[in-house]
Design brief:
single chain, Deoxyribonuclease I, Chain A, about 290 residues
């Protein structure tokens, strides 16, 4: 059952790079994720999905068939931003904004960051209760230390551009920002700017996930060799909402093929249920 009193958002880095350069089992994982998302939509559990790293064409095609009636980002060239937004509600406006500062070749050659142009989508959805709601999906430059560059200066510039431009465009309307921020609480992921964000942008609130909860860790099938546990995936919102629940999704192992059990991605998904702050709210409706 769809509930117009809430807005349910899922952010998920799907590790959907082309097979030759990406996380294994890309072609096997894509239809499995499509099925999971279709179930979440049909059950009324998720209204908006923010996808990162949907770079391979066959991954995008699978996600576009996941029942959500509205989508942006599925028709880019093979690499592109890797970002998609799937929505239960009409998307009335959308633009893609590249980051002003990103790693350049050859400094980022070993990390692959130079192959893609990262930035953020900013879309407006027509919500039945709030009418105009702005949704932004992003993927900041990753931290490759200690094996290569940390790129912390780039992430600082990128997150400031993201927050400032989305807040300006929203102009006081409801705004939700989510994605793979590539920083957060914890030793490995704690950029200096992370601790400054609440003071710099008091109009934005982060979904209050326990600092001990991780979305990227060694327990994941694809990360067993080196990854320190960290929380890289986040959702922020304006005061039009309050976060009443969150859940780390897709942690379970399942059969990818006849021989291998693994998760759907090297990240876990972050889900939140946002309560809409209005004096009078309509009752729940059947889908």
């Amino acid at each position: 059952m769809y509930n117009p009193q809430t807005l349910n958002v899922l952010s998920f880095n799907v590790a959907g790079l082309p097979l030759s350069v990406g996380t294994p089992f890309v072609k096997e994982r894509a239809p499995l994720l499509r099925k999971k998302l279709a179930e979440l939509y049909q059950w009324g559990k998720v209204d908006v999905v923010l996808i990162q790293e949907a770079w391979a064409r066959y991954f995008k095609k699978n996600l576009l068939r996941a029942c959500f009636p509205f989508a942006v980002g599925g028709n880019e060239f093979t690499l592109g931003s890797g970002l998609m937004i799937l929505s239960r509600f009409p998307i009335t406006e959308c633009e893609y904004i590249p980051f002003d500062e990103s790693p350049k070749f050859p400094k980022s050659n070993a990390d692959g960051e130079w192959l893609v142009k990262k930035g953020f989508y900013l879309a407006q959805i027509d919500h039945p209760t709030l009418k105009k709601v702005w949704i932004s999906n992003t993927h900041l430059t990753a931290n490759y230390a200690p094996f290569s560059h940390s790129f912390e200066d780039y992430r600082k510039s990128q997150v400031k551009q993201l927050f400032e431009e989305t807040l300006k465009k929203a102009g006081g309307d409801p705004l939700i920002i989510g994605g793979d921020i590539n920083m957060g609480p914890g030793k490995f992921s704690m950029d200096e700017i992370w601790t400054q964000l609440p003071g710099l942008y008091p109009d934005l609130r982060r979904v209050p996930v326990d600092p001990k909860v991780v979305t990227y860790c060694k327990k994941n099938f694809y990360n067993r060799s080196w990854v320190d546990p960290c929380q890289l995936d986040h959702i922020f919102h304006t005061n039009h909402f309050s976060s009443v629940d969150y859940q780390i999704m897709f942690q379970e192992m399942g059969l990818i093929n006849e021989k291998t059990a693994a998760q759907l991605s090297d990240h876990y998904g972050l889900f939140t249920q946002l309560q809409i702050k209005l004096k009078q709210l309509p009752p729940p409706q059947s889908i």
